[in-house]
Design a protein that fits this description.
globular, two-stranded antiparallel ribbon, mainly alpha, 4 helices, 97 residues
């Protein structure tokens, strides 16, 4: 499936989108976190592509590994960003509309 993490918008408690001064773009957060944390070295190049804000094609196993790293309880990404990432991945995977 094709994922473009630069499409994710994170909103604050009032429902307003964060500016780039307040929060790094989500694709940068995802790319950096993956680059530094993936066990599968094949995903290092994917992390670099995501960091550039470009779409990537992920196999189901790769998406599952990425979701576990980004959205799992061990993740150091703040909860509201993890939530946005998880909801985006659900949408792409057809689990939510």
């Amino acid at each position: 499936m094709k994922y473009n993490f630069s499409e994710i918008t994170v909103v604050n408690v009032d429902g307003e989108p964060y500016s780039e001064k307040e929060l790094k773009p989500v694709h940068k957060i995802v790319g950096n976190h993956l680059y530094n944390g993936v066990r599968n070295v094949d995903l290092v190049e994917t992390a670099m592509i995501i960091n550039r804000g470009k779409p990537v094609e992920l196999k189901p196993g790769e998406a599952k590994e990425i979701r576990a790293l980004l959205c799992g309880p061990q993740s150091i990404i703040v909860a509201f960003v993890r939530k946005a990432i998880g909801e985006y991945m659900d949408c792409v995977e057809g689990q939510k509309k």
